[in-house]
């Protein structure tokens, strides 16, 4: 069984839709894909809290809309709930996450390693399993020179933040049933844009759910053709597989 609830569907600096963070239920294991700085407010809006709502977190890359909520999980986990969640992350992001992001906020003389706060499950790009469901990280281009990953979850593709890569989308279309893709409404050198996604044939567009969009989505939709693309909505529960 796979369910999805987006804690947010907004672009990096969205005020309206919160950070693009995805709460998957994988046969009962609750995996949060990316934990940005709005994740806790979003959970609170739903009457939930990270310590009961999350078993593990997967991080795709180091931008605040994807990692900004981790400090609370680390500190609250250690000092309030005595709970360490699993942390799935590409091997080559472990040091950047610790050195350039979390260490300053959470370290003290007794706790100076990511594993003091999380059950770190570093991954390469080989498939791995969570609760009987296969996942794999796929290195994708986002900011030039900065490591970033998309994720395959069973027969679902989740881009996180990625440039438009037609070859990758075509190959993922063959392998997967649904594609969740970031989509900016203006041009961007680091994210797929709606104009780029609309160059894809209709049979591929039909399988794409856009996310990580700008706050003026509704206005854009009223005035522009969105082809066959579907819009992934914040706080809506999707049953993706029985
Ligand atoms: N080279 C870059 C790097 C970052 N950015 C902006 O910063 C945001 C960080 O989160 P994001 O969701 O990846 O979106 C990025 C851009 O808005 C950008 O516009 N150009
Ligand atoms: Zn982002
Ligand atoms: Zn990003």
UniProtKB/TrEMBL annotation:
Limits of the Metallo-beta-lactamase domain: 18-212
Name of the protein described by the UniProt record: MBL fold metallo-hydrolase
Reactions it catalyzes: 3',5'-cyclic CMP + H2O = CMP + H(+); 3',5'-cyclic UMP + H2O = UMP + H(+)
Protein's organism: Cohnella silvisoli
Key words of the record: Hydrolase, Metal-binding, Zinc
Top-level taxonomy: Bacteria, Bacillati, Bacillota, Bacilli, Bacillales
Lineage: superkingdom: Bacteria
Function text: Counteracts the endogenous Pycsar antiviral defense system. Phosphodiesterase that enables metal-dependent hydrolysis of host cyclic nucleotide Pycsar defense signals such as cCMP and cUMP.
Cofactor (UniProt): Zn(2+)
Database matches in InterPro entries: Beta-lactamase_class-B_CS, Metallo-B-lactamas, RibonucZ/Hydroxyglut_hydro
SMART domains noted in UniProt: Lactamase_B
SUPFAM superfamilies: Metallo-hydrolase/oxidoreductase (SSF56281)
């Amino acid at each position: 069984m796979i369910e999805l609830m987006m804690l947010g569907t907004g672009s990096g600096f969205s005020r309206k839709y919160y950070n693009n963070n995805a709460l998957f239920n994988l046969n009962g294991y609750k995996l949060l894909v990316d934990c940005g700085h709005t994740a806790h407010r979003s959970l609170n809006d739903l009457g939930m809290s990270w310590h009961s709502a999350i078993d593990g977190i997967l991080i795709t890359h180091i931008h605040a809309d994807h990692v900004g909520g981790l400090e609370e999980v680390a500190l609250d986990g250690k000092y309030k709930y005595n709970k360490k969640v699993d942390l799935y992350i590409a091997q080559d992001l472990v040091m950047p996450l610790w050195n350039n992001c979390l260490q300053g906020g959470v370290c003290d003389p007794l706790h100076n390693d990511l594993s003091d706060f999380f059950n770190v499950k570093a991954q390469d790009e080989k498939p791995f399993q969570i609760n009987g469901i296969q996942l794999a990280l796929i290195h994708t281009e986002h900011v030039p020179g900065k490591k970033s990953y998309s994720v395959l979850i069973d027969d679902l593709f989740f881009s996180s933040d990625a440039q438009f890569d037609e070859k990758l989308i075509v190959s993922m279309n063959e392998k997967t049933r649904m594609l969740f893709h970031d989509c900016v409404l203006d041009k961007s050198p680091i994210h797929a844009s709606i104009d780029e996604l609309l160059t894809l044939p209709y049979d591929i567009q039909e399988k794409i759910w856009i996310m990580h969009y700008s706050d003026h989505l509704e206005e854009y939709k009223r005035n522009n053709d969105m082809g066959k693309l579907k819009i992934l909505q914040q706080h809506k529960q999707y049953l993706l597989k029985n």
